[in-house]
Specification:
Layout: E1 17-23, E2 35-36, E3 44-51, E4 66-74, E5 77-81, H1 87-97, E6 99-104, E7 109-113, E8 119-120, E9 124-130, E10 137-144, E11 146-151, E12 158-161, E13 163-164, E14 167-169, E15 175-178, E16 186-188, E17 202-209, E18 213-220, E19 229-233, E20 238-239, E21 256-258, E22 270-273, E23 295-299, E24 302-304, E25 310-323, E26 331-348, H2 353-359, E27 363-375, E28 382-395, E29 409-411, E30 413-416, E31 423-425, E32 428-430, E33 435-440
Antiparallel strand pairs: 1-2, 1-9, 3-4, 5-12, 6-7, 6-8, 7-33, 9-10, 10-13, 10-14, 11-12, 11-25, 15-22, 16-21, 17-18, 17-22, 18-19, 20-21, 23-24, 23-27, 25-26, 26-29, 26-30, 27-28, 28-30, 28-33, 31-32
């Protein structure tokens, strides 16, 4: 039997859409604040794994493997062309650095992302994925491990973000169908009905609100009748049972429900959870992409040529997905260590500035400016990004003549560190090892 694409999908990934929202607490997906953003995609895959049997059958035929974990893999997430007005870029930079400062400059917005800034970003992101092939899904606990920003001659100014995430689900947004003004439940995990063509929506009825918990009934499909009651505790995840008392989903992937502490609920409130997430109409602002030709590379206060291009890599030392024993999706993600930032320019040998920096372990400063030809409203200022590293140490091999003596390029690695004193550039004072500054018209994450 052929299973068609679901919920209006056509199977054409060129129709892919993504949106993102800050997520305040581990394991609790964001339900509001989503922003559509342009991207160049980068895969997000569900990797269903197996566990090899520890059993021997006479004759050597293998036993069927056991069900294993189900991990979210893929990436890196590609924003594509760097666009200071892209809400996805703003949210992802906030997640990488974990701190930012937003200043309303009246005619434009100024964002500074650095480890020493005043405002703490929410620790995770929630992402909605519609690749027009799979049922649309939500990714929870999205955590970015850094970014790579690069430019080569005649190429894009492009930025990508490696990621880890803990869980996904396929259902749609819960809606209240009886009662009014009550707190919507949050659900996670998947069930077979997510892949069905017939009605497998979940219905949840509140039978009693007991203050710190509730008695509820659940059924699968509108035609079913409530006939089994269970108790759920507010402020924690609760496994759901259907109208017959059976698990909704299998034990390793049972659907779970969450209400925050002290929700607003009354008896006979009823909620419907669609088996599949509906598509959405994108709301995208005017794009403001920056070409690689609209960049400058400033070394120790002097603009230099970088004929072979450059790469800026920011990476937390460890980005891990740590699996639990229980559950196909049971896992949490974490970042540990330091945020290492390296700048790798490749340029023609025209002087000994960088060669001397390598030989003498000297420190240099780097500023990379990128801006559009378009002003931000009536501000008189272009959409702009600055990447500032006040103090970098040079390392790598000095120049050596290759066989034939025709090589003319030099390359090295510049590693960022905290400056010994405040670094001033273009009206900005930087005290961290790396700061990314955006000037745009994006007024919130």
């Amino acid at each position: 039997m052929t299973l068609p694409f679901l919920s209006g999908a056509t199977g054409d990934p060129i129709n892919s859409k993504r949106r993102v929202a800050p997520q305040a607490a581990r394991g609790i997906p964001a339900t509001t604040g989503f922003r559509d953003f342009r991207s160049y995609l980068g895969p997000i895959r569900i990797n269903s794994q197996e566990i090899e049997r520890q059993a021997v059958i006479p004759g050597g035929a293998p036993s069927a493997n056991l069900t294993g974990k189900m991990a979210i893999e893929g990436g890196p997430l590609s924003i594509g062309d760097l666009d200071p007005a892209n809400p996805g870029l703003v949210n992802m930079l906030a997640n990488v650095f974990g701190r930012y400062l937003l200043t309303d400059q009246t005619t434009y917005q100024e964002w500074i992302f650095a480890l020493d800034q005043a405002t703490a970003a929410d620790p995770f992101l929630t992402l909605l994925e519609d690749n027009d092939v799979l049922p649309r899904f939500r990714v929870t606990d999205l955590l970015l491990g850094g970014f790579d920003l690069q430019a080569q001659p005649g190429s894009n100014l492009a930025i990508t973000f490696p990621f880890a995430a803990s869980e996904f689900d396929l259902h749609g947004e819960p809606a209240q169908t009886a009662g009014s003004g009550s707190t919507l439940p949050i659900l996670k995990r998947t069930w077979a009905g997510n892949w069905a063509e017939v009605d497998q929506d979940l219905y949840i009825r509140v039978d009693a609100d007991n203050g710190s918990d509730a008695d509820i009934s659940v059924k699968v499909g509108a035609a079913s009748a409530y006939s089994n009651q269970q108790n759920v505790i507010y402020g924690q995840w609760n496994r759901l049972q259907d109208e017959s008392g059976a698990r909704v989903g299998k034990i390793a992937e049972q659907v779970m429900l969450y209400w925050p502490a002290s929700p607003t609920l009354v008896a006979l409130d009823e909620f419907q959870v669609p088996q599949n997430r509906a598509s959405w109409a994108q709301t995208l602002g005017v794009e403001r992409p920056i070409s690689s030709v609209n960049t400058t590379f400033v070394l120790d206060g002097v603009e230099i040529r970088v004929e072979g291009g450059w790469t800026v890599s920011a990476a937390w030392q460890n980005l891990n997905r740590v699996d639990d024993v229980a559950g196909r999706q049971g896992a949490f993600v974490e970042r540990t260590g330091q945020l290492a930032v390296t700048v790798t320019p490749t340029r023609r040998l025209t002087d000994l500035t960088l060669q001397a920096a390598i030989a003498n372990a000297q420190t240099v400063s780097i500023v990379i400016e990128a801006e559009t030809d378009v002003e931000i409203g009536a501000s008189g200022r272009p959409y702009r990004q600055l990447l500032i590293c006040p103090r970098l140490t040079a390392s790598g091999a000095t120049y050596g003549a290759e066989a034939g003596g025709q090589n003319r390029d030099e390359s090295l690695t510049l590693t960022a560190a905290v400056p010994e004193s405040t670094f001033a550039y273009g009206g900005f004072n930087v005290d961290s090892h790396c700061a990314v500054i955006l000037e745009n018209d994006v007024a919130a994450l």
